[in-house]
Amino acid sequence: MQVLVLVERGVAPAEIGLFFAVLALAAVLAELPGGAVADVHGQRVAFCVGHLLMGMALVGFALAQDQVGFVVAAVALGVGRALDSGALEAWFVEEVLTSQVDAGEAGRLTLGLSNGSLVNGLAVAAGAVTGGGLALLVAPVAGAGGLVGASVPLLLGSALLLGSAVLAALRLGGGAPRPKVALLASLRQGAWTIRRSVAGVAVDPVLRRLLLRGFLAAAGLTVIHLAVPIRLELLLGEAGTAAVVLGFLYAGLFALQGLAARCAPWLRHRVGARTSVVGLSLFAAACLATLPWWGVTGLLVAALLCFAAIGPVAPLLAPLLHSRVVRAQRTGVLSVAALTRSGGTSAGSALIGVFAATAFPVVALLGCGLVAASVVPLLCRAIADLSEPAGLGPPAG
To answer: Angle at Cα 48 formed by Cα 54 and Cα 6, nearest 5°?
Structure first.
């Protein structure tokens, strides 16, 4: 929706790309410090500040009239996303592991995170449909107060983000208490936390394998986000029609991914976590391989099936990741994982973007190969007992 606001403001495509480059750079630079803030001061603090920043950033995008305003909004949005990244998951995990330390933590984590994925997917889908519809409804009367049609959904999104921050601050538990520290000590402790988080990933072979899997999968799935829209426009022959279809496709993708994630507890119990992740990843890779051979309907169905296949993967793998992480670096390690996935997306975009418009079969096979390769890091003895991680228990200090 931010792109539509910029287009309606008459911003040139090159400048739009620059603003989103600023956003991405801000998010990358703030990712590890954001994780350190959460680990030092608590996940609730990071979550609330992140949502406040994102809410104000959306207001900035909705109301800004010049490049300076858009750049400030982009930086605020990037930093807010970095603070929010991993904070809620780490917060939830700490609540589970501190209040329920009997047997079965892995199953509870999978159930809770799959429920979270379901709600998140349905919320993203509902937001996409509601935002698009609202922008169309207000377009004829836009212009009051300097607003454009796409500004109204951003203002609504801002209100929801600010409301969630207030709700989290007032109504949700704060997790394990953190000692209060002075500013200078907080900076030193934050730098130490970043170093420990990165070092923890570097020396743990299981964490390295999980992050490598995330990098490869993110790179391969770039086909859906980058090449499928281009292919859809070529098949339909009209950009406007492709945009409408693409909007409904993305709503369906995230809704179906969330619904599929709810199957993770059943898969863990009936099939086993590692077997499920390997099978689902290979199925998603097969869906990518078939993309060039379908028309519009087949293309949409294959993309939807691919996202449905990857839906349960994160809740199935999360207990293993958290079993390798102590409480003091939990959000920091999640930030390192998010950075790794971002790197995979960037690498995939650079690699796949070269062939996206001219050689779609090559792109599809490349994405298939990357997603299929993402199962290789899981094929080791250290991850053999993925269904019941032995190390999972109460968080260590």
So the answer is: 5
Q: 2-174+181-383 — its CATH code?
A: 1.20.1250.20
**Residues with Cβ < 8 Å from 259, sequence gap 6 or more?**
118, 121, 122, 308, 311
CB 31 within 8 A of CB 82: yes
Regions of the chain where pLDDT drops below 70: 1-4, 6-8, 13-14, 16-17, 20, 97-106, 132, 135-150, 172-194, 197, 200, 238-244, 353-354, 356-358, 381-382, 384-397
Radius of gyration of the chain (CA): 21
- The residue written with tokens 């992480």 in the block is 325
Give Cα separations from 273 to 33, 52, 111, 194, 319 (angstroms).
32, 36, 13, 30, 10
* Structural domain spans, the chain: 2-174+181-383
Reported pTM: 0.74
